[in-house]
Amino acid sequence: MAFAQLGPPVQALLAALAGFTAVTVIFGLAFLLCHRNPFSKKKTNKNDTQLRTITQDPAESFQPVAASFDPSVPLISMPDLVTATDNFSPSRVIGDGGFGLVYRAHIPPNGIPVAVKRLSPHAFHGLREFHAEMETLSRVKHPNLVRLLAYCVSGPDRLLVYPLLPQGSLYRCLHDPDDNGDMQPRDNTQPHPLSWGTRAKIIRGVANGLAYLHDGQPRIIHRDIKSGNILLDSDFNASITDFGLARRMNPQHTHVSTQVAGTMGYMPPEYYGGLSVATVMGDVYSFGVLTLEVVSGRRPDQAVGDEGERLGEWVKRLMRQSKEKEVVAPGVEGLVEEEVREFLRVGCMCIAETPKERPSMKEVVHMLQHPQ
User: Fold this and answer.
1) Rounded to an integer, what distance in angstroms lies between the CA atom of residue 351 and that of residue 217?
2) Which of 65, 94, 270, 271 is most buried, by CB atoms within 10 Å?
3) Binding site for ATP: what residues are annotated?
4) Would you give the distance in Å from CA 130 to the centre of its chain?
5) Helix, strand, coil percentages, rounded to 5, for the chain
6) Which spans are transmembrane here (predicted)?
């Protein structure tokens, strides 16, 4: 039957079907042409000289991503780190943080000693967030902050590479000085327990590093200040580490809208009271607890004395009785009583119940450098 012999309604229907079919075919061909190579690599930013990455798009979670921020450390692949840590052998573990294990390793080809932190899967929400945080932390440089040398991502694994500091963590030096784990040999000329001069230097160093985080660019809240996150070099200079919980702050704000976190014994009371944002004053409180821990040699997560007081309550009671010397750890040499009194006073100011009563870390640095 000729098309002209069909009635007008049928002609209109056939014309509409033909038009729809033609449009569908055109769109289908265009889609295939645009996606003919789904695995083609995206162009890199040729002006980006800070990161030396091995992939073009760090958001592609199926490809490995690595970056080095130190010229002495080459790009490190997952096979390199597997070899350097003996396949993440338990015998290589030198630390167990809240967000992953830390391993001793030597990076080829020069055998540079490093600490490799293998983050737990829940340490960051996504690869884009992780990459952004690593770029931020790579720009944070201060003598009292552990430098991020490099990182590597492969599948679900996210690994951070830091310098290996020979004296290990402050926690180990304070509470378990004879257990050197699998760290490098310590300088055995340093007496145990730590002298007062060494303790004062450590406290001042941590204060300087934390003040830099709070007042630098970008401003950062650490969120997990504790003795296990303070590392010591061969001269017992302190460096803050473990930025797995650290968060950047908007310059116009004093908090970050993120779930609060931290370690029992160091967390401020407002976090237990349901505060849903992390603040700089939370870090100040944790620093105050750390100060009392360093002076007294007592763990903040354990009750103190016959009455089972918290560390801060115990220190405040002895200070009211003018018994500051009884707070100091037994056997500490080289005590300077005026400094001891001032360090305890500053530590107690930092653990005030309400955040507005606590000093800023900049004020803390000044008070520790100029004891009254």
Assistant:
1) 26
2) 65
3) 117
4) 11
5) 40, 15, 45
6) 12-34
Residue 362: what pLDDT? 97
The structure's pTM equals: 0.75
CA separation, residue 370 to residues 186, 281, 308, 339 (Å): 32, 22, 34, 9
- Of residues 46, 51, 47, 222, the one with CA closest to residue 149: 51
Binding residues: 117
Q: Are 340 and 328 in contact (CB under 8 A)?
A: yes
- The rounded mean pLDDT for the chain is 79
Whether 300 and 265 have beta carbons less than 8 Å apart is answered as yes
pLDDT tens-digit series, residues 110-145: 888 999 988 877 666 567 777 777 877 788 889 999
Asked if 224 is an active-site residue, the reply is yes
Note the pLDDT of residue 307.
Answer: 81
Do residues 278 and 262 make contact, with C-beta atoms less than 8 angstroms apart?
no
Domains of the chain: 65-163 (3.30.200.20), 170-182+189-369 (1.10.510.10)
Cα separation, 108 vs 62, whole angstroms: 25
Say what the pLDDT of residue 33 is. Answer: 54
| C-alpha span between 3 and 337 (Å, rounded) | 109
The type of residue at 4 is A
Return the SS3 of 92: helix
**Residue 54 pLDDT:** 35
Q: Which one, of 292, 370, 367, lies nearest residue 328 by Cα?
A: 292
Mean pLDDT confidence for 141-164: 89
Out of 224, 233, 283, 306, pick the active-site residue: 224
CA dist 158 and 199 (Å) reads 34
- pLDDT at 219 exceeding the cut of 90: no
d(CA 267, CA 201): 24
Sheet holding 100-107, edge to edge: 65-68, 150-154, 157-163, 112-119, 100-107, 93-97
pLDDT of residue 241: 87
